[in-house]
Amino acid sequence: MDVRTWFNRVWPARVHLIPMLRDNPDHAQVRVYGTHSDPAAPALTACDVVGREPGEEEAFFDFAIDFCQRHDIDVIMPSSRRRVGRRTARVSPAGDSARTLKSISTQSYL
């Protein structure tokens, strides 16, 4: 079973995490999804599946829910630039990322 992991707003400083995820002690297959507002972002080359995310904060929340549903994302590796983390990141059952995002107040930003 693949673990579908999504890096939003992939930055070069986070690319080093991808080989570490793939070389995990459980030998789980990791499929990496990466999105960025700049489709030419160099860090996207480390991802298995790439996409373009909206540049404006207001549109990102709906984009994130849709992206997780379409790709059945298991794990989100949020970018701090989208302000996901302390308030919104939490563990959810595999494949349940979209429901977790929907439960977050729309006043929060990802």
Key structural traits:
single chain; 110 residues; alpha/beta; Rossmann fold; four-stranded parallel β-sheet; 20% strand; globular
Give a structural overview.
The protein is of the alpha/beta class and 110 residues long. The chain contains three helices and four strands. The protein has one domain: Rossmann fold. It has a four-stranded parallel sheet with strand order 3-2-1-4. Strand 1, helix 1 and strand 2 form a beta-alpha-beta unit. The protein is globular.
Whole-number radius of gyration? Answer: 13 Å
- The DSSP helix count reads 3
CATH topology: Rossmann fold
What percentage of the residues does DSSP assign to strands (E)?
15-25%
- Write down the overall mean pLDDT: 76
**How many strands, what sense, and barrel or not for the largest sheet?**
4 strands, parallel
Let me know the number of strands.
4
Helix content: 25-40%
Q: Termini, distance in Å? A: 27 Å
For the record, the count of structural domains works out to 1
* CATH level-two architecture: 3-Layer(aba) Sandwich
SSE string, helix = H, strand = E? Answer: EHEEHEH
Outline? globular
Strand arrangement in the largest pleated sheet: 3-2-1-4
In the CATH hierarchy, what is the class? Alpha Beta
Decide which structural class fits the backbone: alpha/beta
